Amino acid sequence: MKAHYYPSTDSEDVEQAPCGSWLGEGSSLTGFWGNVTCRRCFKSKGKITSAAEADEDFIVKQMGEMADFISAQESKRTTL
Asked: Kindly report the CA angle at 40 between 58 and 54, in degrees rounded to 5?
């Protein structure tokens, strides 16, 4: 049984690991590199980690933009 790295907590419908391996009944996903047993995951560690960091940065930026928008909307309401 191979354990693949998967940085997200939503792994219900995942059919393929970030390393490109198709997941079977004997596969598992983990968010901790210490539990990973897949060689392809280790070979792709830099690529997988940088992609996960880019996703997180995008989400944080998007959340900041949403907070700015809501704040602007609240400011408009209080001045009316």
From this structure: 10
Cα atoms in the Cβ-side hemisphere of radius 13 Å centred on 15: 0
Dmax (CA) of the chain: 63
Q: What are the sequence ranges of the domains in the chain?
A: 2-79
CA distance 32 to 15: 19
pLDDT (tens digit per residue) in 9-68: 777 788 889 999 999 888 899 989 999 999 999 999 999 989 989 999 999 999 999 999
Q: Rounded to two decimals, what is the model's pTM?
A: 0.66
